[in-house]
């Protein structure tokens, strides 16, 4: 029983790391209907920028603030040069644009800051803690706490501020938002900036775990099953989807793995996603359209 | 045609012979001229597909969001040409568009919908609350439903909400597209009464596109009849209401 709990808790905590990546997608998808393939590249770019600044001898806080500024400026640039000219185009056009964008950002990041693997130390000791008999990783706990904090801040932003309400309005009905004078371009800039900052948070945690390197941008692919399971339009869905994927991966590896020779973790989430596509294509929390003619 | 100079102080909106083309090929409106004076209620009447919505979208700038463009003619609001101005900027200048089919923000509460309209003028928290109360005074039903998700309210409530949200932007000119659509006659009457009263008490100007000729002519001062993208007739509302051929036209017939 202890072993089962350990596996489950470890999986759930690791799952919050997936949730953090998925959140960035949800934000942009909700506000502009774009599946932003470049989210992974933004994550890499943010982590690389932070590490490079730290290597220049900047203290943690200053490097963090500067990276946030860089990500916000980058978001404004992307909105101006990529999204605004392509406004009202089909979804596939926008998707292709973000696919291209992801290669540009990756190339730029490595061109400017080098392609070698960098170590990132956030000062979190990865020592096991014990809750009764159950062993949990301290790093995973910090990651989970960060995810909880991020979600709380986002919820406050969306429900308590004018920008948040405008943002949800745009997500609901772009034309109506335009008709009452909401500045779409500004909203998109804010959304991309917030997604960039989320990318930074996720990038730091993932980077601390596996080193800051090119493969960091591939965590997008891990976010896909999370989004399919949780739903593309729901913040809660991104969280729950991440938890499900994390827990399922761990449990499957331990309990099914031995029978088929192990190595389940890399692909199990995708099988789960396909099962969800069969039974609940909108995802667990995907917003069913409320439409009246 | 009118003989007044275009820049007469009372002239709020002047549309000069506009043509609108969708996707570079499909003609939406082929030659519409109309004007709205300060404090007027003007009706734009016509059957489905006559070009009413397109005309309103041309005025509010929302044609741009539909991949359409004004290929000929021009529009002046308060004496200034509006060509190429983004819809959100036009909203700040005082044109607000209540879209056909209401388009409330379904997942937002009724009150959040109203607030979203108020953000445009960047009011203080206190001013925004006052504005809300003003709208609730016009539409008491909305106050009852303030915490309900807008998508779950009735069609009539959604229409009131769409109008209330538009009023929160403190407009000079309200473009109302088909407010009677899908609503019970008694609700339609209620909505038009409120429009007439807003016009009477606050001097707000309206341009209303309607298929429901009877109710529109009863509340409007002046009206234009649109057919196949052209203005085919215009006149004071009471004169048009007296014409018998218009009753046929309501059922899809031709204006003689």
Automatic annotation (TrEMBL), chain A:
Organism field: Azomonas agilis
Transmembrane segments: 12-29, 34-54, 60-82, 94-115, 135-158, 187-206, 226-247, 259-279
Superkingdom of origin organism: Bacteria
Name this protein carries in UniProt: Amino acid/amide ABC transporter membrane protein 1 (HAAT family)
Localization annotation: Cell inner membrane
GO CC, alphabetical: plasma membrane
InterPro entries hit by this protein: ABC_transp_permease, BCAA_transport_permease
GO terms, biological process: amino acid transport
Membrane topology value: Multi-pass membrane protein
Family: Belongs to the binding-protein-dependent transport system permease family. LivHM subfamily.
Keyword annotations of the record: Amino-acid transport, Cell membrane, Membrane, Transmembrane, Transmembrane helix, Transport
GO MF term set: transmembrane transporter activity
From TrEMBL, chain B:
One function term, GO molecular function aspect: branched-chain amino acid transmembrane transporter activity
Keywords: Amino-acid transport, ATP-binding, Nucleotide-binding, Transport
Signal sequence segment: none
Classification via SUPFAM superfamilies: P-loop containing nucleoside triphosphate hydrolases (SSF52540)
Keyword ATP-binding listed: yes
NADP recorded as keyword: no
Protein name in the entry: Amino acid/amide ABC transporter ATP-binding protein 2 (HAAT family)
Naturally occurring in which organism (per UniProt): Azomonas agilis
InterPro entries named in the record: AAA+_ATPase, ABC_transporter-like_ATP-bd, BCAA_Transport_ATP-bd_LivF, P-loop_NTPase
Domain ABC transporter: 13-253
Family that this chain belongs to: Belongs to the ABC transporter superfamily.
């Amino acid at each position: 029983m202890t072993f089962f709990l350990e596996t489950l808790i470890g999986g759930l905590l690791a799952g919050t790391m997936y949730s953090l990546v998925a959140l960035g997608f949800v934000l942009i998808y909700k506000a502009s209907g774009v599946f932003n393939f470049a989210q992974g590249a933004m994550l890499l770019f943010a982590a690389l920028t932070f590490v490079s600044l730290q290597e220049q001898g900047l203290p943690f806080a200053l490097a963090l603030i500067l990276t946030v500024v860089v990500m916000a400026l980058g978001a404004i640039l992307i909105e101006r040069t990529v999204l605004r000219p392509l406004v009202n185009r089909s979804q596939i056009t926008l998707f292709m644009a973000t696919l291209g964008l992801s290669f540009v950002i990756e190339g730029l990041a490595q061109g400017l800051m080098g392609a070698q693997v960098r170590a990132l130390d956030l000062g979190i000791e990865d020592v096991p803690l014990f809750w009764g008999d159950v062993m949990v990783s301290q790093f995973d706990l910090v990651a989970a706490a960060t995810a909880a904090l991020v979600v709380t801040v986002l919820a406050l932003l969306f429900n308590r501020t004018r920008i948040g309400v405008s943002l949800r309005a745009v997500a609901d009905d772009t034309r109506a938002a335009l008709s009452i004078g909401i500045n779409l371009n500004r909203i998109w800039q804010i959304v991309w900036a917030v997604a960039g900052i989320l990318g930074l948070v996720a990038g730091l945690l993932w980077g601390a775990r596996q080193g800051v390197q090119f493969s960091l941008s591939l965590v997008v692919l891990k976010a896909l099953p999370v989004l399919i399971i949780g739903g593309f339009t729901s913040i809660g869905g991104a969280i729950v989807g991440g938890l499900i994927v994390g827990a399922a991966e761990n449990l499957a590896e331990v309990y099914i793995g031995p029978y088929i020779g192990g190595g389940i973790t890399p692909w199990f989430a995708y099988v789960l996603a396909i099962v969800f596509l069969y039974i609940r294509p909108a995802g667990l929390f995907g917003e069913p359209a409320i439409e009246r003619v | 045609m009118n003989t007044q100079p275009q820049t007469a102080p009372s002239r709020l909106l002047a549309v000069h012979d506009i043509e609108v083309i969708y996707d570079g090929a499909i003609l939406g409106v082929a030659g519409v001229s109309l004007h709205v004076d300060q404090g007027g209620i003007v009706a734009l009447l016509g059957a489905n597909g006559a070009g009413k919505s397109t005309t309103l979208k041309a005025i509010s700038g929302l044609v741009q969001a539909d991949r359409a463009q004004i290929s000929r003619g021009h529009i002046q609001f308060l004496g200034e040409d509006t060509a190429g101005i983004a819809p959100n900027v036009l909203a700040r200048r005082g044109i607000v568009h209540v879209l056909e089919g209401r388009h409330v923000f379904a997942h937002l509460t009724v009150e959040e919908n109203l607030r979203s309209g108020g953000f445009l003028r960047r009011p203080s928290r206190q001013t925004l609350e006052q504005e809300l109360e003003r709208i609730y005074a016009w539409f008491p039903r909305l106050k009852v439903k303030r915490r309900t998700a807008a998508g779950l309210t009735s069609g009539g409530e959604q229409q009131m909400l769409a109008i209330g949200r538009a009023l929160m932007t403190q407009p000079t000119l309200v473009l109302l597209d088909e407010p009677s659509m899908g609503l019970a006659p008694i609700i339609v009457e209620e909505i038009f009464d409120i429009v007439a009263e807003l016009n009477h008490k606050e001097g707000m100007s309206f341009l209303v596109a309607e298929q429901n000729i009877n109710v529109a002519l009863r509340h409007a001062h002046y009206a234009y009849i649109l057919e196949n993208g052209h203005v085919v007739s215009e006149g004071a509302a009471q004169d048009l209401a007296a014409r018998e051929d218009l009753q046929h036209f309501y059922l899809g017939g031709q204006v003689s």
